[in-house]
Amino acid sequence: MSNDCLFCRIVAGEIPATEVHSTPTTLAFRDINPQAPSHVVVIPRAHHANVGELVAADPGLASEVLAAAAAVAAAEGATDGYRVVFNTGPSAGQTVHHVHAHVLSGRDLTWPPG
Ligand code: 5GP
Ligand code: ZN
Prior knowledge:
Blueprint: H1 6-11, E1 19-22, E2 26-30, E3 38-44, H2 51-57, H3 59-75, E4 83-85, E5 101-105
Antiparallel strand pairs: 1-2, 2-3, 3-5, 4-5
Helix pairs in contact: 2-3
């Protein structure tokens, strides 16, 4: 838990979020600035800065984040498809340095992304 980390503070209940899925090790909540009709952020409860650091430190937890992302997509009714994105580092636009998977669905998603 880092007091400086927005997503650690959401895990701690200090900042409200609209939760859609929860496990003992992961949490999923709606993005405050959705980029698709369904835009959910999936995080491990434990703090890791990015996906590379997460998988190096705890590959089992990385797998649990992916399983939660798939469960969220199913619960959101993403039968036509969905996208899971880990923005990593400044050139990818990562703004919150607590690893998170964006799970996007509900519209046609172009490829490659901008
Ligand atoms: P990044 O840009 O790091 O890949 O994604 C961070 C995401 O967190 C952004 O999509 C942003 O909209 C979302 N976000 C930032 N602050 C909050 C917040 O306080 N609550 C929620 N639910 N999402 C947030
Ligand atoms: Zn954190």
